[in-house]
Amino acid sequence: MTDITDLTLAELRDALKAKKVSSLEATDAYLANIEKATDLNAFVTVTADKAREMAKASDAKLQKGDGGAIEGVPLGIKDLFCTEGVQTTAGSHILEGFVPTYESTVSANLWRDGAVMLGKLNMDEFAMGSSNETSYFGPVINPWRVKGGNAKLTPGGSSGGSSASVAAHLCAAATATDTGGSIRQPASLTATVGVKPTYGRCSRWGIVAFASSLDQAGPIARDVRDSAIMLRSMAGHDPKDSTSVDRPTPDYEAALGQSVKGLRIGVPKEYRLDGMPAEIEKLWADGIKWMKDAGCEIVDISLPLTKYALPVYYIVAPAEASSNLARYDGVRYGHRAKEFTDVQSMYANSRAEGFGKEVQRRIMIGTYVLSAGYYDAYYLRAQKVRKRIFDEFSDAFGKCDLILTPSAPSAAFALGEKSNDPVQMYLNDVFTVTANLAGLPGASVPAGLDAKGLPLGLQLIAKPFDEETMFKGMFALEQAANFKARPENWWA
Ligand code: GLN
After folding, report:
1. Which pTM does this prediction carry?
2. Residue 333 — pLDDT band, cuts 50, 70, 90?
3. Can you give the residue range of the structural domain that contains 462?
């Protein structure tokens, strides 16, 4: 038989149900891959004992013909999701040693459906970053390398542990979160599929908050089908999150393979950036052609406010972060400074020691834009532009059903290449932040390789709560792209 870890999540799910493999075998096989892949630095915590225990419980159910939708399937969990009894760091020193006494709703939903937890995945600190270099636990390394080269590349961020571990087959699929692109950009850089659902589709309860009006959970998986299966288990209404929406969760897998004939695909001219690599232009043109060949109608659309999306995001997100991160005071959880003279200096020293540079930068920006005298000029104005960006999308969706764009402005870049220039780093989100600002679902699908042999993704954006049409389009894109490349295994 082929290596169990080469099975897709859907194949493994079916093999488990048919009792061709056991969950314990699959779990052991993944744990062996993880052990050999320490060079990738994808995991902050490996929960081997817990994984085997969960796998045995799943096997007992599978033996009796019982079990949930993904019974016995081993997953990785981004270290932003609180997991009961298992350290949850958010990639930060300030939360090192924090062991939650509760489980996030999204991870609880996955365990309800039978999944097995392999461990907690590395990420940018508090999900702030696009390269995984802000993690206190060191950067994650992309399994992909330039053809013939051995330079270390970023797997994207902030969900770099999720994207790298899925690409390297260290788990069947992973959870991730996306505030400005953190599911879709790392998926694009690692040839994985990343889905950010509509704001409100997944509960945010028990996910360490970054920017609450933008944060959404979603899967990173090997293919479109696997991402559909994952999202179905992760999503659902949760009374513990007032922004989670009370709507039934559709069977996304059932949408795959449905005809896309007559679907209108919008192509926004403002996403054609000056200086964008020709290969990304070409890939985008390929994507347009593929959808046309599949029977879609291509419509030119205009989203002129796109140029304000990044500035708006980098006001709103830090503003919310500065408020959310006020709770890390060295008293209730995580790191506390050893040296202080009074309670003020205890707070200040704990925060200065506990937060990394990028997080401190965001807190300073956020505090500034919210401060008296600047609030109207920055935060309030950004909120107004945000509303207009939403309106602009609503108008565009009068003319089309899905919007097709590149996922990221470049392929994977080298560690250190952008980390000294925050604005360069922020530009990574140029194609993805708009969907967060407008609350729309967006997904990245692997579509091709650049001349250096690195993967590139295409993004589809859909109407609110119309993930089913998005999955239909993603599947058509995946079929047409027929992307089969795999990174050479240099790490094991
Ligand atoms: N790269 C963006 C940021 O640093 C988005 C991160 C995210 O989506 N969590 O804020």
Report:
1. 0.98
2. confident
3. 1-492
